[in-house]
Amino acid sequence: MEHTEIGVVHTTIDRADPEAVAELSKYGVATIHEAMGRVGLMRPYLRPVYPKARMCGAAVTVLLQPGDNWMLHVAAEQIQDGDVVVAACTTESEDGFFGELLATSFRARGCAGLVIDGGVRDVADLEGMDFPVFSRAVNAKGTVKATLGSVNVPVVCGNALVRPGDVIVADADGVVVVPRERAAEVAAASAAREANEEGKRTQFRAGKLGLDMYGMRGPLAELGLRYED
């Protein structure tokens, strides 16, 4: 799986360690992104289709053709409990690839949610089901089932490379991709970052200024910042 293929379904993939995935699920997208070295974010146009949507799981990837959702039906068979489906398209398309019926099918397979660089519909139903979806657009326009794509190949979704089995975390701040082989390392780094931020939070609550806590006064003075009455 070193390159993108058309017309193939890889039925065996290496998923991130489940314990590492569970640990990553404790942290927000911003924390994970920072802890990983400020990398891994998908483009910010991928937004939750309803408030409080959140997900974390290993990726089952889908490569779609524009206006065609056939491969999402094919992908359903490959979903294991806790997986997140990540769907990209061979070219930009905002058609409504996904709705309540496919969500029902995905949920029956144990799917934890969907990230799609395309459109979705039936948003009220998705919210009622509490089936998390992050999408490029909300669009009632229907799709066909006529052209082949692929399942479980590397895809680029929202400008981020996603390989089958990588960890996807999504919340109100966006979507981040954690390489499967780095899942445990990034989870540990996220925990350390959270602990560090709690210490800073305590100081802010006590009234300490970031100017002092971060040692900003010297560099600001060197750049010529002055205070005047």
From TrEMBL:
Q: Which CDD domains match?
A: RraA_family
- Gene3D superfamilies in the cross-refs: Ribonuclease E inhibitor RraA/RraA-like
- The lineage's top-level taxon is Bacteria
Family indicated by similarity: Belongs to the class II aldolase/RraA-like family.
This entry's Gene Ontology molecular function terms read: 4-hydroxy-4-methyl-2-oxoglutarate aldolase activity; oxaloacetate decarboxylase activity
Q: Which organism is it from?
A: Streptomyces zaomyceticus
Entry protein name: Putative 4-hydroxy-4-methyl-2-oxoglutarate aldolase
Q: How does it assemble?
A: Homotrimer.
EC number(s): the record gives: 4.1.1.112, 4.1.3.17
Q: Which gene encodes it?
A: ligK
Spell out the reaction equation it catalyses.
4-hydroxy-4-methyl-2-oxoglutarate = 2 pyruvate; oxaloacetate + H(+) = pyruvate + CO2
Keyword terms: Lyase
The protein's role, per its UniProt record: Catalyzes the aldol cleavage of 4-hydroxy-4-methyl-2-oxoglutarate (HMG) into 2 molecules of pyruvate. Also contains a secondary oxaloacetate (OAA) decarboxylase activity due to the common pyruvate enolate transition state formed following C-C bond cleavage in the retro-aldol and decarboxylation reactions.
Cross-referenced InterPro entries: LigK_PcmE, RraA/RraA-like, RraA/RraA-like_sf
Needed cofactors: a divalent metal cation
Q: Entry's Pfam families? A: RraA-like
Tell whether Lyase is among the UniProt keywords: yes
